[in-house]
Amino acid sequence: MSLQVDVHNRIGDFDLDARFELPSGLSVLFGPSGAGKTRLLRLLAGLDHPLQGRIALDGTVFDDVAAKVHVPAHQRRIGMVFQQPFLLPHRSVHANVALAVREGDRTQRRAQAEELLDQVGAAELAARRPQELSGGQRQRVTLARALAGAPQLLLLDEPFNALELTVRRRLRTLVRELVDRAGVPTLFVTHDPEELRALADRALLAERGTIDALTDADGALAHLGVQPGSSRASVDQQGIDRQGIERQRLDRPTP
User: Fold this and answer.
1) Where are the beta strands (DSSP E) in the chain?
2) Could you tell me which of 109, 193, 221, 233 has the fewest CB atoms within 10 Å of its CB?
3) What residues are paired with 63 via a beta bridge?
4) Structure confidence by residue, pLDDT tens digits, 190-202
5) So what's the pLDDT on residue 254?
């Protein structure tokens, strides 16, 4: 299974150009804040329409501007996890996951939800409400919910950014195990060099609205000039500096 992307989009004065193909496994989309990472995920999820180009998943066309094809978000079999978990506050943990199961009768959906909660290490939380959970627990439940619809593509947009470092590291290990088990293309967005090194089977670079360089973790860091051990903040600052230098170059009068 593979994801093929060749799109152009514009929002305001920001242009996004993305061209790549991702096989099954865990790919990390890496770059500074404001480089177009979340905007790409919105296109893949069907939340935004590209101005030009095509998005297809293993032969299933999601978007084809020339052919006037756009599959809406709710018809795409995509599991999504965001930085802020989206869980129904008036429902139990178990119900939140069971509602996302697409197939089977009520008994089968409940059994599937129990299995998924067990896989993410949250079986003991089944009867609780989301507001009774810690940040790390909510993200475990959100991962189970994302997998409940048997997705063909997983999108994770900086899902652990607001969590403590020790919790983030445990959840990275969990994501690695879940992706290996699911066997589908997975795109994990981050601007954290540690997450890039810990997770990436391969890396996509996001730089000034261009996403097209498929490499490994070390190659991504070297391309962006990020030193080993750099923090997320320093990656953002380097991205800002690089963009500022580029703007100065473009704004400089021609001799």
Assistant:
1) 2-11, 14-23, 25-30, 52-57, 60-64, 69-70, 78-81, 153-157, 185-190, 202-207, 210-215
2) 233
3) 55, 70
4) 888 889 988 989 9
5) 38
Architecture of domain 1-77+153-236: 3-Layer(aba) Sandwich (3.40)
* Count of all residues that appear for the chain in the document: 255
What is the β-pairing status of strands 25-30 and 185-190? parallel
pTM value surpassing 0.90 = no
CA dihedral 66, 212, 45, 53 (to 10 degrees): 0
- Under 8 Å between Cβ of 141 and 130: yes
Which residue shows structure tokens 């590209």?
50
Residue 210, number of CB atoms within 10 A of its CB: 16
How many other CB atoms are found less than 10 A from the CB of residue 141?
Answer: 24
| Per-residue model confidence (pLDDT) at position 227 | 63
Residue 226 has which token pair? 């990020």
pLDDT digit string, tens, across residues 109-139: 999 999 999 999 999 999 999 999 999 999 9
